Amino acid sequence: MSKRVTLAQVAKSAGVSVMTASYTYNQPGRVSEQARSRVLAAAADLGYPGPDPSARSLRRGSTQTLGVVLGEHLTYAFDDPQAVTFLAGVAEVCADQGYGMTILPISGAPDDVSRITSAAVDGFIVWTTSDEDPVLAAVQAMKRPAVIHGGPEVPGLELVTIDNRAAAREIGAVVFAGARRPAIVSQPLSRSRISTITRGADIADALFPVTRDRLAGYRDAATDAGIAWADVTVAVCARNDLAEAERMTAALLASATPPDAIAAMSDQQAAGVIRAVRAAGLTIPQDVAVTGWDDAAVAASLGLTTVAQSLREQGAACALAALGSEPGSHQKSWAIVRRDSTRR
Hints:
By secondary structure, this protein is of the alpha/beta class. It has helices spanning 7-14, 18-26, 33-46, 53-60, 76-79, 81-97, 112-117, 135-141, 164-175, 209-224, 242-253, 267-279, 297-302, 311-322, and strands spanning 65-70, 100-105, 123-126, 146-149, 158-160, 182-186, 196-199, 233-236, 261-264, 289-291, 306-309, 334-337. The protein folds into three domains: 7-51, Orthogonal Bundle (434 Repressor (Amino-terminal Domain)), CATH 1.10.260; 65-160, 3-Layer(aba) Sandwich (Rossmann fold); 164-308 and 333-337, Response regulator (Rossmann fold, 3-Layer(aba) Sandwich), CATH 3.40.50.2300. The strands form three sheets. The protein has a five-stranded parallel beta sheet with strand order 2-1-3-4-5, with helices on both faces. It has a five-stranded mixed beta sheet with strand order 7-8-6-9-10, with helices on both faces. Strand 3 (123-126), helix 8 (135-141) and strand 4 form a beta-alpha-beta unit.
């Protein structure tokens, strides 16, 4: 590759000082039209594209960019409906404030921490992660504004989340009403992302705070309904994936004690649950009551009872917090939307 043309070379070719050449790009009002024309003509002749953006960022002490730490493969940001909606909220604020957005995918690889420490960003937004995720300490050590969505709570960092336990208790009361064999289709418990089916899951094993709080809320709802937690089947999925939720639900329905109520931790998972229930020749909600979470577009089309929350608003709140604003409380910013997938 040819060596990058420097501003000093442009100044020499234009017959002006380096300071005049610099003003041409950074403070054009301080340069005469004649001098500016000469500098730009020389730059065009030499193939000079303009000042190095990284060097400019160093001079002004800001990159005008927020980093979103995503504990998933990069394609997750474009495939997962929850992530897409959340990132849209972040992007909306970035656009309003003249900021860019850099997605930093974290996969559990050895270079995860260095990816954080080398990121040229002004602040961090950490997508829901687990208690033991090493990137949390790395973000904390960077001493830049940072906010975590969903959890965990980290001293010195902002947190934007809803009261997942309270919401799960309320939606659980709806889906478990009249049920004898309730089940839960769960988000992953930890970064190991192991799919499993168990009864009376040990909630302490859930290292993702969002998953842990929702399981605790469902347990509260089961207890309120007179159902022992040990009798509640929990199907843990590795991903927020419709196909996996469908497979797990098919396994539940084929068991000796098929569930008559299933609470899914996302509308995406609930869509998979509904497919499996219908494929088994069962009716909703007469044979199996089903609930989701998020009130995504698919929930309305499926007539799904769900927990409504605005991930777009939460994404915007995270971006504003990373830019120095108070994120405010989102603990109560959820509601139950009742449709036809649960028993009256």
